[in-house]
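Ticket #4471: structure output looks truncated?

Reporter: J.K.
Steps to reproduce: submitted the chain below (317 residues) through the standard prediction queue, then opened the result file.
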Amino acid sequence: MLGVVAPPRARTAGNLAGGLSNFQKSTADRLPDDVLLEIFDFYRLDAPGPTETGWEWAWHPLAQVCRRWRRAVLSSPRRLELDLYLTNGSHVRSILLRSPSSLITLSYLGERYDDDYERIPWPSGDIKGITLAFKQVDRIREIAIVKDCDVLAKLFATVTKPAPHLEVLDIRSDWTSSILPVGFLGGNAPTLSVLHLYKVLPPLPSTPCLTHFSFSLGDYSGDTQDDYMIDELFTRVWTMPLLEALRLDLGLVGPTYGPLTPSNCPTVLSVLSSITYLGSGRHFETLISGMAAPELVQRSFPFPPQLSSFFRLLRAR
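Returned output as attached by the reporter:
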């Protein structure tokens, strides 16, 4: 793939290269580049279909028709949403230099295993590669990283500038819990729409455009600061006006001093339609005290039936 992949929209390609090459020879040469890009962009938008690596649109047939088409595609990576795809073993420095205007997708999903189920460690240069990419955080569209807490802490301590193009953030600690540093992403992620955290604790940046939020403590058993951490988490949820789906797994953590401070002024989350909750009933009571969800239709929670009245309250506010 030459280190380039489209973001999760698009489609599998047909036989466009063969089908359009004859047309190109007769009339396509007369089209200016901006018209070609309009056609290519329409092709991208009309490209549904999942692949093994996500939702991709097949730009390769366009680039193989002729030299001019290839130049048009590769010279307009942002217009056509072609990202640099960096993963385990990628030669990050050379890839970044090769296409300095493209946005970046980082996908470093933890340890791999061989046929004998023996762990395959990360290539030695991966941490340096991620650090290099984070120096250009203003180009990053997606981040997906699974690593132990110490490595995550070192990596994210360097990300103190805003990421104006970041849309997806998926961070998972595969051992003990990690804590996001104060000032992560400059405290603001204005374009972030999908956030998944596993064993990664607040503080969270401001996320005014977030639509999907998943937070899990895993098997984390807690300490004396849990109530303050969860209080901050709930307060952040109450300030996500575009939230559509919420999943919270607070695991074994329970209140140490009774119910948390409820909100006196519930926030209306007008498009929230799905809630999945695992954890303490007291925490759940605090969570819903600060929100109203008139469009809520899907819910999952491990409480006795009488607590379903909370959901009726959520919808009625």
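Triage note (M.O.): checked the attachment and the full token line is present. Residues 6-18, 20-24, 49-55 have pLDDT under 50 and may be disordered.
Status: closed, working as intended.
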